[in-house]
Amino acid sequence: MNSTGTPIDYLPIVLMFLVALGFVVTTIVATHLLGPKRKSKVKDAVFECGIESKGNARFPFSVKYFLVAILFVLFDVEVIFMYPWAVNFKELGWLGIIEMFTFIALLLVGFYYLMAKKALKWED
Amino acid sequence: MLIIWSFIIYKAIMCVAVFAVALGIAAYSTWWERKFAGLLQDRYGPKRAGPFGLLQPLADGGKLFFKEEIIPNVSNKFLFILGPSLVMITALMTGAVIPWGRPLHLDNGDLFHLQITDLNIGFLYLLGVVSVGVYGIMIGGWASNNKYALLGAIRASSQMISYEVAMGLAVVALIISSGGSLSLNDIVTAQGDGGVANVCWQPLGFIIFFVCALAETNRAPFDLPECEAELVGGYHTEYSSMKLGLFLFAEYINMFISSAIMAAVYFGGYNMPEWFENLYRGSVSLDTFALIGMVCFVAKIFIFISVFMWIRWTIPRFRYDQLMNLGWKVLIPLSLLNLGITALVQAWRNGLF
Amino acid sequence: MSTLLLNIPVTQYMFYFLSFVAILCGMMVVISKNPIHSILYLILTFFSIAGHYLLLNAQFLAVVHIIVYAGAIMVLFLYVIMMMNLNEKDEPNKKVFLKIAAVGSAGLLLLTLVGSLKGAEKMVAAAPLNTNVGLIKNLGQTLFGEFLFPFEISSILLLAAMVGAIMIGKKDPVK
User: Fold this and answer.
1) C81 and C139 part of one domain
2) In chain A, what residues touch B125 (CB-CB under 8 Å)?
3) Stated pTM of the model
């Protein structure tokens, strides 16, 4: 059954999405209708432990998070390449292992570079 | 067309059933979490609402529904509502590929598969849904326009994407050693009928997967995004009423689903130990056999959920740099090592040496 | 059952629906004032394109499209957008010259696309619709057999990208 997957296998995913969406919409609408509504300027201000809020939360944050995101994209692509290999592991045999170990060796070079440059060092 | 409609109706029944079970188990996980915490800390836990406090989850849910809905006046209203919705939808969507049991036999001779859909690339579907789940938290935290919420959201997303890499590598190793199928049903069946549970060949891979699952679900000791000592409530600081409830509930659903995944792919899912299976095999009908398998699967899930809770009430929280170091400098090299070893061991098992 | 779905016009309706969603969301990416909304529309576009892949039975490609584009690259985009100062008062005034240049270059791109697609109606599908080429098993055999060299080269490309990211994102400590 699985070696020949067809698009119809994905129809239930759409159904599941509809069920989940229905639940979420019902919940949000219900809680909107059921709860009390007593608005005031102070209550609707953002919470900052009782201190009056200065400015807003639209400020730049540390570039390290950005670096983590870039590295994640790169590593994610490399991991994606490994799935077709894992599925065909038996058929590809030694050739596949050598190919993939070369690939991983290059990945490790990059990883070593990350370490040497201390790109992942969180404190400085 | 008739076939299509019957197909849709039967799948719709499965969807609603999985949805109801996920909600029910998530609700009672909250009860069990408190009881379990009470057990560990030598106190009672909830005991007023109903016998043993069994009605507590209903009371909590009801309370959340009747709480005032506060949307901060400086927030982006649409995105503020979208955030928890996305988190909840992605949490529920992950249940679609988990095989809950052996197929049941219907009167007209058809098989009733206890799985919503058996995708060819089931495991990748799971990773895809998990990777989309990051948006809910990020958008929710950013839309609140609160500094704590923003920091919590960035921490959460950064943590989740960091641990996704190691998780993916652990899955690659698992696929290799379980025989090269990404379909969850194939992975589970391969472990039954004379096969051994994957954890025997993948002990290190299992530990990596487990740690990553803890981090992906934002459970302790990786619950920094909602670290109350530094960030008030983290990304859900500004949320109230059932919108907060969706965030909290989604965490329990994620915990349930990740326990189910680990029980299925590493511990044989609905398969039982052979001696246990031999007690029943032949003497009961196939459907009863399938049901016993399901009970066994649920028991495994329950154990995993309890381990999640045990860890939460035992281990203190990580510091953020420790968390990132663990993810990038320990788990990724370790999972690459695991992958290399698995490849060589599997080559040996396939007779390449 | 599966061949039934492939032969009836349902597939065609799905194609039109997904195309409609993709184009609508693509336009909304450009039109939306709020950059976060733009990103969300872009994610929707990616999902509808993944749907197109599914209709072609390229399942692996579809899920990779979601994991890599919708799940990884868009998170990066979201970070970039969130790191920018999004306060409206800081929004720089764009010069008229810049606007004209943008319209001009976009027009050139459109011209190129139309030009390249003009001959496309004579194109025939290389394989029948219910093909299994896009399944992970067959794709892996092609990737690690026929396209072995490009595959290994891609790892060097990724290495180069990694070095580039660190060069940009990480300053060497001042001595």
Assistant:
1) no
2) 13
3) 0.88
